[in-house]
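Researcher: Here's a chain I'd like modeled. Treat it as a single chain, no partners, no ligands.
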Amino acid sequence: MQCFARLMRTLAWVLCLAASLASAKTETVSARGTGFADSAEAAVSNALIEAARQTLGVSVLHDPSFRSATFEWVETEKLGTGRWRSKPENQAPSLANVESYRVIGVKEIREQLWQADVEAKLLKPASIGPDKSALPSLVVAPVRTAADSYDLARPYPASGVAQSLQRALVQSFTQSGRVRVLERSYPAAVAKELAIAASGLSPYEHAKVGQQLGADLIMTTEIEAFQLGREADGHYGSQLRQLEPFIRVHYQLIDVSTREIISAGTWVDQQSENNFIKRLREADIEPAREKDRVGEVLYPYVARNLSGEVLDALYPLRVLSAAANDAVYITQGAGRLGEGDLLSVRQPQQTINDPDTGLAVQVNGPVEATLRVLEVAKGYARAELVTGELAVVNAQAVLHIEAQQADAPIGIERPLTPGSSEEPIQW
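Model: Modeled as a single isolated chain. C-alpha cells:
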C-alpha cells in the first residue's frame, strides 16, 4: 500500500508539472488592428489579420491559409460590434493562435471603401527568461561562397565553411543579447518556391524571404577570400607556409519591412599571423598537428567581428559606468567583444548636415583614451583604462574596436636555426 501511495503521489506530481508546463508555453495577449477593403466583412478580416501580425509576426501576412481561414470565420459571424466572438472548434489549424475577436467599429469611409477596427485575443508563445519582445528579430541567411573550397591549414569544401560560419554567426548574435535570432529553415524550400538559387538572391528577394520567416532584419554574407597563409620563401629545397589569415567577407543588414540596406561593407581580417597563433595556443591548439581544430578559433573570431560590424549600426558601443581604472563597464559583451580587445575612446564634437542627402553626420574628435577588455559576460563587458584619463570615459563617449599591433614573432614549432633559415651554417 505504501508503494502504491508513493506511486500515486509521484503520478500526481508529474501531472501537475505537465499541466504547469503546458500552461507556461503560451500567454494570452490583446491587440488592436485596423483594416480596409471593398466590403465590411473583408475590412474586418484584414483588421483581424493586422492585429495578429502585431503579436504573431509578419509571417501571418504571407500565409494564404491564415488569410482564407480568417475570412471564412468572419463571414460566419454577424458584424455586430462589442460582442466577443470565439473561434469555432472546427476552424482551420492555421487559426490556432487566435482565441477570439470583437468588432470595435465598421464604417464606409468612401464609396466601396470600408474601414474596420478590431480587438483580438491571441495566444503568444511565452519566452523562457526575460521578455525580449522589444528586440528586433533577425535571421542569418546562408553564407554565399565564391569558390569551391578554402584552404584552412588543409582544404575544406566551401559548403562546410559556409555552414560553420553561419552557425558561428547565429551563436554570436544570440550571445550579444541585442537581437532575437530566429532559427528557421531558410534556404531550400523558399529558394525553390521562388525559383531562384539561394546563392543568387538579391536584397529585394532576401527581404521577401525574411517576411515569410517573420523576421524584422536579415543578415546576408558572401565570402570573397577565406584562407590561412600564403606560400613563403623556400629554404634548402623545402617550401614554408605561413598561417597569416587572409579573409574578406561582404555583408549586408536588410530591413525586411522597408527593404532598406541598413548596413553594408566588406570585413577584412587585420590580425597578424603571430596574434592568430597566440589565439590558437590559448585554446590549446597546435596548428601543425591539429589542423582540424583551427576552425574552433577561426569561425567564432570571424563571426564576432562580422556581428559587431552589423550591431554597430543598431547599437553602438557605450559606457555603462566608469567607477575606477579597472572597472569600466561597457554595453554588449559575449558575442560582440572578446578578452584583450582594445577600444578607442573619442568624444562627439559636432553634428553637420550632408548637403547631398540632408542627413545629419556626427563628427567625432581624436582618440582621447584606450580601453582593454578584461572580461565579457552576456550583455556587458568590463574593461581597464590603458591610456588617457578616466574623466573622458563617460556615457557620451564613442567607442570603437581597434586592430591590435602585431606581437613579437611566435614560432609555429620552434625558432628558425642555421640550416633551416637564411642564417649561414657555421662549419
